[in-house]
Amino acid sequence: MDSKRKELGEFLQAMRQRGSPEAFGFPNGVRRRTQGLRREEVAQLAGISATWYTWIEQGREVNVSTDALARLANALKLSKSERSYLFDMTDRRDPQAHLSEADTAPETLVAMLESIHIPAYIMGRTWDILAWNAAATALFGDWLINAPAETRPNLLRFVFQQPNAKQFVVNWEMRARRLVAEFRADCRTRLEEPELKKIVAELTAASPEFEIYWKQHDVLERQGGQREFTHPSRGLVHYQQVTLRPVEQEQLKLVLLQPVN
């Protein structure tokens, strides 16, 4: 038996047995010999065949669709972590994952930014800049503080639409090409989300370079490393970039720029 299928079956069995039948709308009769829900009851709640569900719990070689997993997660009232675990075990993407991931930075993380004395900012799902500190303002200036009222500052909009970006970012073409490849990799499981499609369409229409790079389908994981900028008053400045992800909101990124002398 495949270890993942065995683990999936055992996980579903544990989730099924932990709750009281009444919490799921079933009577807890004296003849009930099964702890928690019966297999037939889970199948009924999920709208799937009882035999097929039994096979899943037994670890048999059956193909469990994304839709079936979503219905099982809802039927068993799984928490966010449990639901993620269920989909990860089957190597499938939860179609509702983005619905629980608000694109806002936690207040505690925002408060920490001002205690960081190097440029630091928080990026969201489509690389909007959700919060930043004074050192980031001093480095990036107008890009952060003069964004249009209807939008938030966005790293991709800055690189591909800001008039002075090509002068500000050293080795702009190389950095811009890599940035698009990193963005595609970061969003690879969310390409059909409306907000992502919206910003890709906007950038494609506004920037011939973005359109070319996006159509090349290059994929690179986001990495740190040296970053150089030509600051209007300070001249050439060098930084070492590090990107961190908060455990509780992995769709966010905390970007730190350590000055290099």
TrEMBL record:
Query: Which SMART domains would you find in this protein's record?
Result: HTH_XRE
Identify the SUPFAM superfamilies for this entry: lambda repressor-like DNA-binding domains
Q: Which residues form the HTH cro/C1-type domain?
A: 35-83
A Pfam family annotated for this chain is MLTR_LBD
Full protein name: Helix-turn-helix transcriptional regulator
- What PROSITE patterns does the annotation carry? HTH_CROC1
In which organism is this protein found?
A: Methylophilus aquaticus
